[in-house]
Amino acid sequence: MIWYDYYYLILVVPALLISLIAQANVKKAYSSMAKIQNAKRLTGEEAAKRVLRFYNINNVQVHMTQGKLTDHYDPRSNVIRLSPEVFSGTSIASVGIACHEAGHAAQHAQSYAPIKMRNAVLPVANLGSSVGFTVAILGYFMGLDILVSVGVILFAAVVLFQLITLPVEFNASSRALKVIGETDMLYDEEIPKAKKVLRAAALTYVASLLVSVMSLVRLILRTNRRR
Questions:
Q1: Is 30 within 8 Å of 200 (Cβ atoms)?
Q2: What is the pLDDT of residue 2?
Q3: How many Å apart are CA 172 and CA 99, to the nearest integer?
Q4: For the chain, what is the radius of gyration of the CA atoms?
Q5: How far apart (Å, rounded) are the C-alpha atoms in residues 183 and 47?
Q6: What is the pLDDT of residues 113-168, one digit of tens each?
Q7: Active-site positions?
Q8: DSSP per residue over 91-149, as a string?
Q9: Is the C or the N end of the chain the one with fewer CB within 10 Å?
């Protein structure tokens, strides 16, 4: 049966399950650490600003945004946007997440090489995520090898983007933990708890990469089946 995709069942479904587990794990870690207040009652907003001061960054602001776990750094407007629970919260999770996002601001300020590489790949990755698979499958059914190759290359850009994202995310967490430790934002016994939240978040990026890699392998195997 032509529409029965064994490659999807064998390759992609297990990766998706791992991704779901990783997402559940980060939510569990966040919920657990969000209940533990840091001893110094430092808010996420204050923690992010301390990281910025540590790196002598004066042109980045810290704002509150709506939603849960919507925290991010916007390099276009030089703004760290923190969800309400993180912005005003005084939990260990709030401090860890806020410092992580400020770590991204430090990466941009210091022209961190993987950030530049990721930005260079981003336009092609966006295109690949929206049309790469479709173009390759269309070429497969039309018997146009060149169209298949274009689709595969576009989708491969998505994998490359996510691969470059890993060192970016791990480095932002390393920067966060470094500043937390060197500026005594958290006590020694609290730092491992902040690290637990950041590690769980990082594993979601690893899981997403695994899904994309398996999807790319599936696409290559599927389109090569007839060629």
A1: yes
A2: 43
A3: 8
A4: 20
A5: 10
A6: 999 999 899 999 999 999 988 998 898 888 888 999 999 999 999 999 999 999 99
A7: 101
A8: BHHHHHHHHHHHHHHHHHHTT-HHHHHHHHHHHHHHHIIIIIHHHHHHHHHHT-HHHHH
A9: N
Q: What are phi and psi of 68, to 5 degrees?
A: -120, 130
Report the share of the chain in percent with pLDDT over 90.
Answer: 83
* CA–CA separation, 96 and 54 (whole Å): 15
Cα distance between residue 26 and residue 197, in whole Å: 7
Pair of tokens at residue 65 = 């945004």
* Inter-residue contact 25 to 203 (CB < 8 Å): yes
Q: Are strands 72-74 and 61-64 parallel, antiparallel or unpaired?
A: unpaired
Domain ranges of the chain: 6-224
203, 173 in Cβ contact below 8 A?
Answer: no
Give residue-wise pLDDT tens across range 78-89. 999 999 999 999
Q: Give dist(CA 177, CA 183) in Å, integer.
A: 10
Torsion sign across C-alpha atoms 85, 200, 25, 188: negative
Q: Which residue has the tokens 């490659």?
A: 7
Distance CA 40, CA 221 (A): 55
Cα–Cα distance, 102 to 4 (Å, whole number): 46
DSSP code, position 62 = E
- pTM attached to this predicted model: 0.89
